[in-house]
Write a structure and sequence with these properties.
Elements: H1 12-24, H2 28-44, H3 51-65, H4 68-81, H5 86-94, E1 97-100, E2 103-106, H6 117-124, H7 133-140, E3 145-150, E4 154-161, E5 166-173, E6 180-186
Antiparallel strand pairs: 1-2, 3-4, 4-5, 5-6
């Protein structure tokens, strides 16, 4: 049988054949040890390797040894060295990583984003300046009446909600397509 001490210089095919032989003999632990030694030796050589070597080594750690954390470390090293490699980027995305600034991090480690003022207002059923027509409609429903006022500089739109005694004033500047809320106030008497 192939000697385990020669495992570091073996090819991938030879390694897999040796691991299969160990498993056939009922020694799964020795098969795993051989694969781990071979992979760790590959990791030591990655600085001289290309992006596909980082990718394959990461995949092997994950599939052969079920060591996803170690695989992720290798993948992150690879993307640092080859930031535009499509295959490395695809695997990072598949493994739920995202770019946070200039670093790739697990999506689970991303800071939770604080809801902005508009999101908070929608959640609490309020209307605030900066909302779009769709956001107001989803918060208060369709207006009872609508008033349009057009000028050379701007278009105004006033939605009236007599049930809640509110008037929502939208403004559309000529350079924007949609209206945004500029004022929310009580209905005039």
């Amino acid at each position: 049988m192939f000697r385990t001490k020669n495992i570091l210089t073996s090819t991938r095919t030879e390694l897999l054949a040796v691991a299969d032989q160990y498993r056939d003999q009922g020694d799964a632990e020795m098969a795993e040890t051989a694969m781990a030694r071979w992979l760790n030796h590959r990791v030591e050589q990655l600085d001289r390797a290309g992006p596909s070597d980082y990718l394959q080594t990461a995949l092997d750690f994950d599939s052969w040894l079920q060591k996803r954390e170690r695989a992720e470390e290798i993948l992150l090293r690879g993307i640092q060295k080859y930031p535009d490699d499509a295959a490395l980027l695809a695997l990072l995305t598949r493994w739920d990583f995202a770019k946070n600034g200039d670093q790739w991090v697990s999506k689970a480690d991303l800071p939770m984003s604080k809801p902005n003022e508009i999101e908070q207002a929608i959640q609490s059923g309020r209307v605030v300046a900066g909302m779009s027509r769709a956001q107001v409609a989803s918060t208060l429903g369709a207006p009872r009446t609508v008033t349009r006022i057009a000028s050379q500089k701007e278009n105004l739109l006033i939605w009236n909600y007599p049930d809640v005694k509110l008037a929502v004033r939208f403004e559309q500047l000529r350079q924007r397509n949609d209206y945004v809320v500029v004022n929310v106030g009580p209905l005039p008497r």
